[in-house]
Automatic annotation (TrEMBL):
This is ATP-dependent 6-phosphofructokinase. Its main location: cytoplasm. InterPro entries: ATP_PFK, ATP_PFK_prok-type, Phosphofructokinase_CS, Phosphofructokinase_dom, Phosphofructokinase_III, PKF_sf. Belongs to the phosphofructokinase type A (PFKA) family. Mixed-substrate PFK group III subfamily. It is found in: Cytoplasm. One of its GO terms (biological process) is canonical glycolysis. Homodimer or homotetramer. It comes from Agromyces atrinae. The lineage of its organism: Bacteria, Bacillati, Actinomycetota, Actinomycetes, Micrococcales. Substrate binds at T126, I127, D128, R163, M170, G171, R172, E222, R266, H272, I273, Q274, R275. Keywords: ATP-binding, Cytoplasm, Glycolysis, Kinase, Magnesium, Metal-binding, Nucleotide-binding, Transferase.
């Protein structure tokens, strides 16, 4: 069989480990051949790909980013887009199946293409851990590790100056990175999109930390908003490129905290640092297992399925189960962390 692999959407530590796991399992167990599509669905729509041999994936599991490149191209748009054009391109080049590694957008497109008859298997990818139907996704552990290290570093400078630090981590729709890095780093408040909070409550937590002679540390997910409606809307809107404005919440919170509590406050935005560099050992193993399992799903003809982590097992579910709903932080996990606030 000749299998095409693509990585699509925002990159994520572990993408290369998935590619390596898939190619090695495919070559060793099935004598499969591989091609890598350039820049996600764009490579599929434009027919841009190159052979992917065993030697191309050597030593790849520790490498950040993706050797195939990525984009946010929609495979239903553009000249070569749509199921008929894509199937024609695959037939002309003898490509039997596609492994699509991506998040919500990528998998939704994969599902629609499978419904139209294309042979696709999905692999979930998101550092935010917001995809349903998988307990964890690779990249998340690495992001939490990076954010925790940053929090540890911010704590020592905060303590030296008796300042309040507000750290913004990624998490567009869900607060998993904030919850885990905040718990690991001993944050005094963790603010997540699932739990709008008012500024008075945040300042109460901050002041109680100061009253114990400590420097308050607040971890906030980029998608968090205050439950005060005016503030909730004031940071929304579109940026200069007409994209929904994200982040900037730490920059707004720090002066609000300082004005209300009198505690000198600083903000830090970790941004794409959380997505760069080498994956953690956990993510390398998870990504490798998912890549290997994707090959098994291809040889089982499980089109429209996605490989997933359930407990410690790798399973196969329908992509339909994974898209259209978010893996949000449950109330119980937030309540548990909240005991440690203030
Ligand atoms: O979805 C993953 C994510 O890292 C979000 O946490 C973040 O909001 C977004 O991607 C950033 O996307 P981009 O790299 O396109 O700016």
């Amino acid at each position: 069989m000749k299998i095409g692999i693509l990585t699509s959407g925002g990159d994520c530590p572990g993408l290369n480990a998935v590619i390596r796991g898939a190619v090695l399992n495919g070559v060793i167990s099935h004598e499969a051949e591989f091609v890598g599509f350039r820049n996600g669905w764009r490579g599929v729509v434009e027919g841009e790909f190159s052979p992917l041999h065993r030697h191309d994936v050597r030593g790849l599991s520790k490498q950040g980013g993706t050797i195939l490149g990525s984009s946010r191209t929609n495979p239903f748009e553009g000249e070569g887009g749509g199921p008929e054009n894509i199937q024609r391109m695959l037939d002309e080049n003898g490509i039997d199946a596609i492994i699509a590694i991506g998040g919500e957008g990528t998998l939704t497109a994969a599902r629609r293409l499978t419904d139209a008859g294309l042979k696709i298997v999905g692999v979930p990818k998101t550092i935010d851990n917001d995809l349903a139907a998988t307990d964890y996704s690779f990249g998340f552990d690495t992001a939490v590790e990076i954010a925790t290290e940053a929090i540890d570093r911010l704590r020592t400078t905060a303590e030296s100056h008796g300042r309040c630090m507000v750290v913004e981590v990624m998490g567009r729709h869900v607060g998993w990175i904030a919850l885990h890095s905040g718990m690991a780093g001993g944050a005094h408040a963790i603010l997540i999109p699932e739990q709008p909070t008012n500024i008075e409550q945040i300042c109460e937590w901050v002041e109680s930390v100061r009253d114990r002679g400590r420097a308050p540390l607040v971890v906030v997910a980029e998608g968090f908003h205050l439950d005060d409606m005016e503030e909730a809307h004031s940071h929304k809107g579109l940026d200069a490129f007409n994209r929904p404005r994200l982040g900037g919440i730490a920059e707004r919170l720090a002066p609000m905290i300082e004005a209300r509590t009198g505690i000198e406050s600083r903000d830090t935005v970790l941004g794409h640092i959380q997505r760069g560099g080498a994956p953690s050992a956990y993510d390398r193993v998870l990504a490798t297992r998912l890549g290997m399992a994707a090959i098994d799903a291809v040889y089982d003809g499980a089109w429209g399925s996605m490989v997933t982590l359930r407990g410690t097992d790798i399973r196969t579910v329908s992509i339909a189960e994974a898209v259209g709903r978010l893996n949000t932080v449950p109330q119980s996990r937030y309540d548990e962390a909240k005991i440690l606030f203030g």
